[in-house]
Amino acid sequence: MLDKLDELFKSHTIKPTFDLVHVILALFIFGKNPEGIGRYKLQKELLIGSGTARSLIKKLNEIGNFISVIDDNRRKGHVLTEKGLGILKLIKKKIPLLEKGDSKILEDIIVENKNICAYFSVIKGAANNVSSGIEQRDASIKINGLGATCLIYDGVNLKLPSNTIDNNMQDLVLNDNLQKYFKIRLSDNNIELETQDVIIIGLGDSYEKARLAALNSVLTLL
Questions:
Q1: Is residue 161's pLDDT more than 60?
Q2: What are the pLDDT digits (tens) for 85-126?
Q3: What whole-number distance in Å separates Cα of residue 27 and Cα of residue 8?
Q4: Between vectors from CA 220 to CA 125 and to CA 168, what angle results, nearest 5°?
Q5: Which residue, of 35, 67, 91, is where some domain finishes?
Q6: Is-above-0.90 flag for pTM?
Q7: CA distances from 213 to 7, 35, 151, 189, 206 (A)
Q8: Could you give the 3-state DSSP secondary structure of residue 172?
Q9: 18 and 83 belong to one structural domain
């Protein structure tokens, strides 16, 4: 799936200043803005500089043919092409959800200060790739996030896996309020969890950073 994006990073001169997480998040953002989105807005959403945003859009347009320019006589923007819609559909088979989380409800399972923002994502069938949770935390921090928490669905309940807490403990089943919270949020997005699915919660001091933290952590499980 992700190998279809390799061409965006090939260069005989200068290595791209954007990362895979920016490419995938950009595709999600374009998918949520079918009326078009401009470079400046994309730059703010991805927390990247103007030069990096310009380079990313150029690669997505000219190399990947994933987006195209629209001009409605009022403003210019970009939308997904058929090829772009196709690659986003493939990505969503593995990562069907990337949504803002309620940090007040999630505070029982995120060990951070109160002034924190959260995003969560669903990864299909990735439970066997979760080890200590350190790799996901590090991926979050690498993109200026504040950490990440992995949850695994066992077919009945969502759990904090013991290997991400203490190897001498059993998996910790989430309380009823948290089980209900995720069940409702997933149902609202027409997503049904299956055994071995994973939810990653990414944290940041802004929602933009939390979203990048969640998605960059997700990429460690693919």
A1: yes
A2: 999 999 999 999 999 999 989 988 876 666 899 999 999 999
A3: 13
A4: 75
A5: 91
A6: yes
A7: 24, 27, 15, 21, 10
A8: strand
A9: yes
